[in-house]
Design a protein that fits this description.
This protein is an alpha+beta fold and 197 residues long. It has a single domain, classed as Roll (Thiol Ester Dehydrase, Chain A), CATH 3.10.129.10. The protein contains 4 helices and 6 strands. A 6-stranded antiparallel sheet has the order 1-3-6-5-4-2. It starts with 27 loop residues before the first strand and ends in a 9-residue tail after the last helix. About 30% of the residues have low confidence.
Amino acid sequence: MASDPPDIRPAMAAPNVFEPTCPAVVDTALASPDLASPDLASPDLADPGLADPGLAGDDPSAAGSYEHRIEVQAEDIDELGHVNNTVYLKWVQAAVIEHWRRVAPREVVATHLWVALRHEISYRHPGFVNDNLVVEVVLKKLQGARAFYRSLITRGDELLAEVDSSWCCLDSITRKPVRVAREVVAKLLPKGVARQG
């Protein structure tokens, strides 16, 4: 009798099958129960760019938009001498999740995960080692289980990249898409922007 082939998927990979509310292809998995719950946080799995889970909850200044500050490190640089294209996406992911952790109540952060469905990025100018950058993420709308963000990566007044991304909210246990509760939506969206769907 042949044994089952080993599971070669990464341990933190997001499910790649969703309910109809989310597309079937996931470009990037970002959250896991290990990162969403302060009790299960592991230093081996935690991304240093992500906020401390203890920051979760009720920061009214973070509603709608959030600024994530970065100093470009040597490991962010590619063979062309500037920030590697994939690093921009890592920064956007960290900023979006940090925004969620700062605004959503702690118990909601612990029971919901976000996975990136799509990123569309336009590169304007290169970044270099030791640059001090800001990733400003703005939540544009929530529709069903999906959130749509625009992120601007800047160095002072200079725009380096802009990213439009869509995300799907998952229940941390079932890993199925779930709508964000109305009271949480009110904290996430900037005033005057309504939830759609």
